[in-house]
Each structure stands twice: as structure tokens, then as C-alpha cells.
Amino acid sequence: MKLLKATPNLSIQRSVDGGTDEQRAAVQSIIADVRKNGDAAVLKYTEKFDGITLSSIMATAEEIEEAYTLLEEEQKEIIQRAAANIRAFHEKQRTQSWITTDADGTTLGQKVTPLDSAGLYVPGGTAAYPSSVLMNVIPAQVAGVSKIVITSPPDRTTGKLPPAVLVAANEAGVTEIYKVGGAQAIGALAYGTETIPSVDKITGPGNIYVALAKREVYGDVDIDMIAGPSEIVVLADETALPNEVAADLLSQAEHDERACAILVTDSMMLAENVKLEVEKQLKTLPRKEIAASSIENYGAIYVTDSMDEAVDLVNQLAPEHLELLTAEPMTLLGSIRHAGAIFMGRYSSEPVGDYFAGPNHVLPTNGTARFSSPLSVDDFVKKSSIIYYSEKALRKNAEDIAAFARMEGLEAHARAVESRFK
Asked: Is 121 annotated as a binding residue?
């Protein structure tokens, strides 16, 4: 893990991947095929990329029942408790329609309406992600979305979805679950097939092909974000414990070889000890090859001259996850301007938010926390403006409106207002 002296206007190496020309062309070809050939194309690519021939794209009731028998009772209860926490948090995000009326009869407002449908992508591959099910489904439900479907890549051996994913989906009340992954799943959700319905919005993380596919279909449907590899920044002072800091950095490094784990500190002693701890803990980590590659290529420890400089660097990084492991984390909170989620104190390790606390773990990556936010209930509603002018209100303002229209050279606009009084 590189130990570096922080400097002003530091050039940050990010694991940004916009895809190669070949990858983009492949995604475009897959989506076009799915649009034209529907289920047949989906099944073809599932066999090609996931190595399994499916007889049914949709997860069956029998598969869901079987999933319950394969999970321990404690695991099911943990999913239920996590779901309750996530729902309680997102219930507080509800926004209401509003309307106001002035004395002259002007009525203005905003109407909040849930989307009709949403498609939620749950990644697969090297791990199962029931947490992604809950984090995507629950805010959509709280928003009032009436039709929610899930897609996720099937297991290469069984052709089924992981038991925890099926149980989480069923506990969340989702009945349409499709065993489809990759760009073909995004194409199916965007344009529909004989089996998979088209939706209004697609959310959820995935690999580079999923990210490129979401970018490709955006405009025909809405998407949440183009998510990159996971990242964490730990902002720590001399009071932080090196073994805990190292463990938190590795908790993100094990996600992906391109994940980014960074320590920012004003303590050289802590920096040196954390570097040693990371090397020590890596040796016993089950996913050590993935974590080691992440640490080697995208991991870093930055040492600053002061905590003020450290905070400035954090804002420059604009991390997906930010941990404040300092003696008084609350005193720094007001200075943090750019971060997807902020974890305060040693008892708020990043996995607390990943799984259980309640705030959403679908977060902006690659510095996009400078201008974007975590997935929320707001992502599943749309807002319509309400405008009502009485005759009195229009008479009062008609001259200004017509003059403004003519300022822009739009005579028909001006006449549309003036015609009411001729």
C-alpha cells in the first residue's frame, strides 16, 4: 500500500472505466438483439455468458420455497431485521405534494407521483447480494411504485438464484424475479420481452457490461447512476486504532480488484502502522487475491500536515464511503462537503451501512458525490408543476408575459396570452 505525502491539488488515480470500444460495441449488439428477438436472445446470452441453459427465465415458486429451506432461521431473521431498518429510514424520505393560492387567484404547486414501474438489477458472480435487493426494492415500495421486478444472473451450476437473494426478494414482497444478468437483462428491462416487462427506471449496480448497458438505454428509460468500483476513504487521527483502520480499508478492497481504499491522516505513526496492519491482515483474508490487487493498484495512505488539510483532501476525493475515525468526528461533519455516506466514530464501520443501519448503500462513486446522492425514495417519484391563473391574475401579468415572449422573438407566445382579452 503506497504511503504518500499529500500535496495541494493532488492528482487522484481513480479506477474509472468507460469501457473499451469492443465492450461498447458488444453491449450495443446485445441490446439490439434483445429488442428484436426477446426471450430467445436473453436465453442465448445466458447460455453464452453464464454457462447455463434455462428452461424458465422466471424464478419459480418452488425455487423460492426451496431457498427458505436452504437458509438458516437466523439468516432469515437477519434479513427481516435489516429490511425493517431500511424501511424505517426510507419512510422518512417521503415528499408530499403541495399547493399554494394567492389573493389574486394564482394557484401554484407541485404534484408528486410515483413511477409506474421499476426494474432492479442485483449483481451476482463471485458473491450473493441480498442487501442489494433490499436497498433497491424498499425505497421503490415506499415511493409507491406499483410494479417492481428483479433481474439477477443465475448460478452456473444450478441455474437458480442464490437462496439469500430469493428470500430477500420474497420478504420484500417482490413476486417477479428473473434469472437474467448482464447487458441482456438491462436490454430486457428497458424494452421488454415476451416474459420480462419493460419498466420506467432501472437501478442497481453491476459489472462494466451492465454499466455500459444502462448508459446505452438511458433516455428510453431512466437509470439511477453509472456505478463504478466501490471505494472507501478513512479520515483518521492519532486516536484511531491501526488494526481497525486496516480492517475497514480491506472491507472495500475485497469487493473488486478495481476497488479503491484510501487512508487520509495527519499522523505519520498511524500511517506506518496501518500499512503494516494491511499487509498482516491480507495474509488471512479469504479473498486476499482480489483485495491485494485492489490495495496494490488503487490503495493509498496520504499523510497531511494538519487535519484541515486532511478534510480538504477528503472533499477533493469525494468518496463513496467516508469514515471519520477521529477523537471528535462530529466537529468535522460540517466541513465534509462531498461524500456519499459518512460513518462517524469507531463503532460505525462501513459494513454497518452496507447491511443494517437503514441508509441506502447504493452510492455515488468515482468522485460523483460532488454532485449526486445515494439512492432514495426521490429516485422513484417524479414531480409535476401545477399552474392555475385566474382572469384577475392573468390581466395583472399579461403585459409582462407578452413582452418577455417578444424579447425572445416568439410572437405567437405573446399573442396566446393577449388573445384572452380580445
From this structure: yes
